[in-house]
Design a protein that fits this description.
Radius of gyration: 20 Å
Shape: elongated
Helix content: 10-25%
Largest sheet: 3 strands, antiparallel
Structural class: alpha+beta
Strand content: 35-45%
Order of helices and strands: EEEEEHHH
């Protein structure tokens, strides 16, 4: 497992659905039941308090986010990301990016 900020490059193959807290009916109204992943076309999606969207990723590449930002001319943003994650980012050397 990498210990630095990364980015995943690729297109989602299939959007799957949502992840969050699934509720169930009760006499007093809906109550939290469990954490669950629910597909878009599942009837339970109406009972889900979504926290995240899920997708299936295939044929993607994990790249060093700090190096990619610096190489694209966003050295200031790369520095802010590195400052936000100091323990993880300290192990990853940042390139100076394009000169000019």
């Amino acid at each position: 497992m990498r210990r630095a900020p990364v980015s995943v490059v690729g297109d989602p193959d299939t959007e799957r659905g949502y992840r969050g807290t699934l509720y169930r009916p009760s006499a007093g109204g809906p109550i939290p039941f469990r954490n669950a992943s629910v597909a878009y076309d599942d009837f339970r999606v109406a009972w889900l308090m979504a926290a995240a969207q899920e997708a299936v990723l295939r044929e993607c590449t994990i790249v060093d986010l700090l190096s990619e930002l610096a190489a694209a001319g966003h050295a200031e943003l790369a520095s802010r990301v590195a400052a936000a994650y100091p323990a993880e980012a300290s192990a990853v050397p940042m390139s100076a990016g394009p000169s000019g």
